[in-house]
Amino acid sequence: MPKIAFLGAGRMASAIVDGLLAQKICPPEDLACADGGDGTAAALAARTRVNAPAGLSALLASADTIVLACKPQQLGGLDPRVAELTAGKLVLSILAGKRLARLAQVFPRARNIVRAMPNTPGQIGAGITAWCSLHLLVRADRATVDAILGALGTELSVTEPQLDAVTGLSGSGPAYVFEFAGSLRDAGVAAGLPRDIAWKLALETILGSARLMARTGTEPETLRDQVTSPNGTTYAGLQRLAARDFRGLIKETVLAATARSEELSRD
Ligand SMILES: NC(=O)c1ccc[n+]([C@@H]2O[C@H](COP(=O)([O-])OP(=O)(O)OC[C@H]3O[C@@H](n4cnc5c(N)ncnc54)[C@H](OP(=O)(O)O)[C@@H]3O)[C@@H](O)[C@H]2O)c1
Q1: Threshold 0.90, pTM exceeds
Q2: How many CB atoms within 10 Å of residue 67?
Q3: How many whole angstroms from 122 Cα to the centroid of ligand 1?
Q4: Residue of 14, 18, 35, 178 with the most ligand 1 atoms within 8 Å of its CB, for mutation
Q5: Is the CB of 59 under 6 A from ligand 1?
Q6: What residues have CB less than 8 Å from 126, skipping those under 6 apart?
Q7: Residue 40, CA distances (Å) to 32, 143, 248 in order
């Protein structure tokens, strides 16, 4: 693995560093990070023994691959010397809504640029990240991208125009699941259960159902039908979901998030 420098040392950078170290993909001395001045790099370095050199040149000079992991709104505030200091290097951005064309303005001399959209379960190595690249990745760079994004969980390549829909589905998707989980818990309370018991039932139902879908590879509609007996309890519940057009609502939700991603990616 090449040496990797992180511009940003917050939640996502930490998750990638943790994954790379836990999977023994590289030793801490091959990783380095910098922050915007609030001490996150020093904290990450103290916890994981990765480097946190003072100064941008020291950070970028010895690295072959740069992971851009600051907030999207902090992109414009990066030290302009990054343009020269990333010449000939691979740049991997996880910034939401920042297109390859915009990244290419900030890193005009990078040998290639990858734009990735991770999601929050990546913080525990259970995420899914979709990514696209400016130019076709050479084999070695593809392996580097696979390793870095693999530290967050599963990864897959898409085209750049698909990334807005990816954002609407898997990028924002954890929030829909969290909202569903909270709704299920509250509904259990409304049905007469204590809150802690309702929460445990809701959480384990979601976890178990997700595992069952993943393990069997069976379509969710088939699994749904298998637990639905005619005029039974599940049937009564599903009738209510259908009456309120649950599927239509979820479709609207993903389309709204996709449209917002398109809007935010325009600048
Ligand atoms: N969280 C997610 O699940 C998720 C999902 C999809 C995409 N993303 C993307 O991941 C990126 C990082 O998110 P996060 O949650 O990890 O953010 P975060 O915890 O706020 O971390 C941001 C990091 O960037 C650093 N930073 C700020 N200005 C900088 C500069 N000029 N140069 C170098 N570093 C600078 C901050 O340092 P200081 O605070 O110490 O100044 C901090 O270490 C975002 O762009 C977001 O769009 C996150």
Answers
A1: yes
A2: 25
A3: 14
A4: 35
A5: no
A6: 153
A7: 12, 28, 42
Distance from C-alpha of 209 to C-alpha of 165, rounded to nearest angstrom? 24
Tell me if 95 CB under 6 Å of ligand 1: yes
Residue 35 CA to ligand 1 center (angstroms) comes to 9
**Domains of the chain as residue ranges with CATH:** 4-164 (3.40.50.720), 171-264 (1.10.3730.10)
Over the stretch 139-152, which tens digit does the pLDDT of each residue have? 999 999 999 999 99
Question: β-pairing, 65-68 with 4-7?
Answer: parallel
* Distance from C-alpha of 174 to C-alpha of 197, rounded to nearest angstrom: 22
Distance 239 CA to ligand 1 centre (A): 43
Residue 100: exposure state from Cβ atoms within 10 A (0-12, 13-18, ≥19)? middle
Centre of ligand 1 to C-alpha 7, Å, is 8
pLDDT in tens, 8-46: 999 999 999 999 999 999 999 999 999 999 999 999 999
